[in-house]
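quick one, 332 residues, struct below
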Amino acid sequence: MSDENSGDLRPPRQHGTTWRESEYRILADDLRAGADLARTAITVGRTESAVRTALRNFVPPEERVPTAERERWIRTRLVAEPEWDWWAVVIDHHHRRSRSGLWFTRHEHCARIGWRRRTPMPALAQELATSELSVAELLRALGLVESIEEAADRLGATPGLALAKRVTARRDEAVGARWILVVDGAAGTTRPRNAPVRRQLSLHETRAAAEAERDRILSWHRRIGPEEPDAPVWWTIAERGLGATVGHTRCGTLDPTATGGQLRAEALAVGDIIRVPVPDGGHLQDRITAIAHHAPTGPIVVDLAPVANSRVRRVVEFAPDELVDVVHKQQD
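---
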């Protein structure tokens, strides 16, 4: 299954968050390669209009480039002048002139190290020269947490400051909230009258219970076989409080090529997509890009896909006989 927000009608994950250096580098690479900006927007988790707005930061102040010509002008210059220091232009335009926030790669490294070492939130905020709330939002943007509450639970929050107040307000709203699971198109579920697809709808007290029921339904779907092999299976898990119309929502689709199951770490291969737990209680899912086994009885070091196009790597160590959840097995 996929944890991407496929079919999600909410704003993209990074909507409204501070732009990061890694996002700009993805945008520059796609512009140079001639990629469609709509696809770039999906990659960085922003709206296409936000990506097109960011193009203005590539244009030096002395240049008079009409809005309609920005994309073509930038693509042409990136190809014609490989040595062009576009990043210096972005820093000057985005960071200094507009005084907008901008996270550099060093900030991302600092945040990841602080998260792994459980650096107290006040100290991490001081190290990043920003507020505790901004740190929590950066951790969420990096995918280390799914909410600022998770960041506060792990690293703490200074009472009376914005992060602590925001967390308290959100928890008050969550009192009495329930998790709603909707699965569309899965075999073995019922088809409501006049509905175009089969639908499973259930109410749960916790997110874990909703995810467990989702996994059970999708596993059964795989076992008995879909009625229409090419028809997608969609799932949505939404948290809703009493009288609330919006809340935490996750959507995704079933990957029909996924093999699933568990393998010993020594049997993993480059290209496998694995799912491993993280300290906050959630899971990290990504593709293996490299495997190192320095000694026969030593740990197996697995490199996962890099964070955006930056040099930040996700590295996980396993014991040789440790069982690892494999979402998709690379075919030989």
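The chain is about 35% helix and 20% strand.
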